[in-house]
């Protein structure tokens, strides 16, 4: 019986120390921050977006006004989310919380200089991938993507890489 207790003690010690022997997963390191906004653009009555819709910032309205393919008379912010960019995993943002009906996934592919990152982006609606592509994003610059038609207007995604950590050598 003493022998069983000793073996059990040794095995449990090995089991509980296994996490420290293996070490931390470097793929879980946060290398940056991504902000995702869901915007509604329409030439009609913007109040059809509902009570969750808020006035869009002047900065975003000016930027959208410069893009010919996204010209609308009025814009509303439906929601936003900010998520860490993990080094080796697919990351998710849910700009229409608490709903998970609209999601954006992004995964780092490679660094392009100090302040740029190539990412694999995907837009999900109703658990279906609507589209994906792999842009190179710059810190502080917003990428606007025109989404599907919605309530006599369009959904627009605005993605901004807020920060990108300096690469450790």
Structure commentary:
The chain is an alpha+beta fold and 169 residues long. It is built from 2 helices and 10 strands; from the N terminus they run H-E-E-H-E-E-E-E-E-E-E-E. It has one domain. It has a 5-stranded antiparallel sheet, with no helix packed on it. Strand 5 (102-111) and strand 6 (116-125) form a beta hairpin.
Ordered list of secondary-structure elements with their pairings:
Layout: H1 2-22, E1 30-42, E2 54-55, H2 58-65, E3 74-86, E4 91-93, E5 102-111, E6 116-125, E7 128-133, E8 136-138, E9 142-150, E10 153-164
Antiparallel strand pairs: 1-3, 1-10, 2-3, 4-5, 5-6, 6-7, 6-8, 9-10
Key descriptive features of the protein:
169 residues; alpha+beta; 5-stranded antiparallel beta sheet; 2 helices; 10 strands; globular
Produce a short descriptive summary:
By secondary structure, the protein is an alpha+beta fold. The protein has helices at 2-22, 58-65, and strands at 30-42, 54-55, 74-86, 91-93, 102-111, 116-125, 128-133, 136-138, 142-150, 153-164. It has one domain.
Uncertain runs? none
Strand content: over 45%
User: What's the number of extended β-strand segments?
Assistant: 10
**Number of alpha- plus pi-helical segments:** 2
Largest sheet: spatial strand order: 2-3-1-10-9
Percentage of helical residues? Answer: 10-25%
Gyration radius from CA atoms, angstroms:
22 Å
The secondary structure category is alpha+beta
Give a quick account of the main beta sheet: strands, pairing sense, barrel closure: 5 strands, antiparallel
Order of helices and strands: HEEHEEEEEEEE
Mean pLDDT: 79
